[in-house]
Amino acid sequence: MAASTAPARRFGSLGQWTFVVFMVLLMALFVTLGTWQVQRLAEKEALIARVEARFNETPAAFPPADTWSSLDPEALDYRPFGASGTFRHDLTVLVFDNLTDANGQFSGPGYWVMAPLETRDGGVLWVNRGFVPESQAAAFANGGLATEGEITIQGIARRPQQANPFTPGPEVAKRREWVRDPERLDLFLPEGMGPAAPVTLDQVAGAPGSLPQGGETQIVFPNRHLEYAGTWFGFALVTLVMLGYWIWRQRHPGNLAERDNGN
Fold first, then answer.
1. Crossing angle, helix 14-55 and helix 225-251, to 10 degrees?
2. For tag attachment on the chain, is the N or C end more exposed, with fewer CB atoms within 10 Å?
3. How does pLDDT run across 80-115, given as a tens digit for each residue?
């Protein structure tokens, strides 16, 4: 049988153009989202580089207490500091967490041992002494076998950990918390102590195997923006192919009918 020579059908009805405009707008949306993810990728990589540079700085003395009210927690985040003062181990607060990818040998469900350090100039700096497994938490409820008297420590400043709508409130009576937020931790202090620093300090690691397990500051930022960008650009390409095929079908309906009939 001779091949069909049916002419291409004219394209241009209102309904057809409406569909084309819709598909073009959809494709533009996908391209916009992909471009935005590429921009977010650059921002995230810059953030990671900035944090790593801070983390490796030479430790500086922690700012004096009379400047704490003007400090920006974001500017201090991940910076190493040294601080001197006296721990109030009797005011220790245990903050629940599930530690993964630990630097030390202990991980899983447990607690951060948060102790207020009374600095030489009268301030209170909450120090994360480190992680203890849940089974050993009771031994550190009042500090455990900790050094008494004035001490100098080194640690990494961390901005307040944010609670979410499902985070339980502070359990003051049990001295138990769920986030490392100085403002919430201050609720556990007796009246008259302070002022309190707007950041916490993650104490550096001690001897291997010792508890609390310090040195657990994690530099972890979710970074799947390249994957997301590829997904959105892929949707844009699929949309373009679908639109091209649909237009071809609208212009050559006879060819498809003949193929379906086995001609």
1. 170
2. N
3. 999 999 999 999 999 999 999 899 999 999 999 999
Residues 155/83, Cβ–Cβ less than 8 Å:
yes
Q: Token match 């944010």: residue?
A: 162
Beta bridge partners of 61: 82
Task: State which amino acid sits at residue 5.
Answer: T
Going by C-beta distance under 8 Å and a sequence separation of 6 or more, which residues neighbour residue 34?
Answer: 228, 229, 230, 231, 232, 233, 236
Rounded to two decimals, the pTM is 0.74
30-42 in b/e form (b: 16+ CB < 10 A) is bbebbeebbebbe
Q: What is the pLDDT of residues 49-86, one digit of tens each?
A: 888 888 889 999 999 999 999 999 999 999 999 999 99
Q: What are phi and psi of 129, to 5 degrees?
A: -70, -20
Residue type, 175: R
Separation of alpha carbons 127 and 111, rounded Å: 13
Separation CA 101–CA 104 (nearest Å): 9
SS3 for 34-50, per residue? HHHHHHHHHHHHHHHHH
Tell the burial category of 158 from Cβ atoms under 10 Å away from its Cβ (0-12, 13-18, 19+).
buried
Burial class (CB in 10 A: 0-12, 13-18, 19+), 76: buried
SS3 170: coil
To which H or E segment does residue 184 belong?
helix 182-185
Alpha-carbon 74 to chain mean position: 13
